[in-house]
Amino acid sequence: MDLLQPRAGVPAGMMVAPVIPGLTDHEVPGILSAAASARAILCGFVPVRLPLDVAPLFEDWLGRHYPDRRDKVLTRIRSLRGGKLNDSQFYGRMHGQGVWSEQIETVFEMAKRKAGLDREFPELSIQHFRPPGGPQMTLFD
């Protein structure tokens, strides 16, 4: 059995999100290894985003659960987000910027290669697709 092929023949990927610098970023290699063992064939990541009311909730949670890391984590997030806790710009919000963004991406890319998750997504087929039909499709006639 080819361990690189999904058991049911359905290609699947996974997303590591949110990656929180100074809190969860060290877990990325283990997560990707587990995903590869579960036969994922591709992966992606998104750095933590703290839009609107999420930011104060996260700051409070961080202060209660990780008071020793609170300032370090918030400083790194601000570094990722151009001095703020959130960046609403399309590209920026999904990737971040600066040294911490680059470090997360470098670790992610290395772990992705090591886990074998750096392949191209296979071409999809509509060979077995059937248009919906049957009695349920007449419900709204």
Task: Describe the 3D structure.
The chain is mainly alpha-helical. It has one domain. The chain has helices spanning 28-37, 54-65, 70-80, 90-95, 98-115, and strands at 13-19, 42-47. It has a two-stranded parallel ribbon. The termini are far apart. The mean pLDDT is 88.
Lay out the secondary structure.
Blueprint: E1 13-19, H1 28-37, E2 42-47, H2 54-65, H3 70-80, H4 90-95, H5 98-115
Parallel strand pairs: 1-2
Helix pairs in contact: 1-5, 3-5
Quick gist of this model?
The protein has 141 residues and is mostly helical. The protein contains 5 helices and 2 strands, in the order βαβαααα. The protein has a two-stranded parallel ribbon.
- As for the number of domains, it is 1
Spatial extent as radius of gyration? 20 Å
DSSP summary, beta strand count: 2
Specify the biggest β-sheet.
2 strands, parallel
Helix/strand-derived class? mainly alpha
List segments where confidence is low: pLDDT < 50 over at least 5 consecutive residues: none
Major beta sheet, strand line-up: 1-2
First and last CA, distance: 48 Å
Strand content: 5-15%
Shape: extended
Give average pLDDT, whole number: 88
Count of helical regions: 5
Q: What proportion of the residues is helical, as a percent range?
A: 40-55%
Order of helices and strands: EHEHHHH
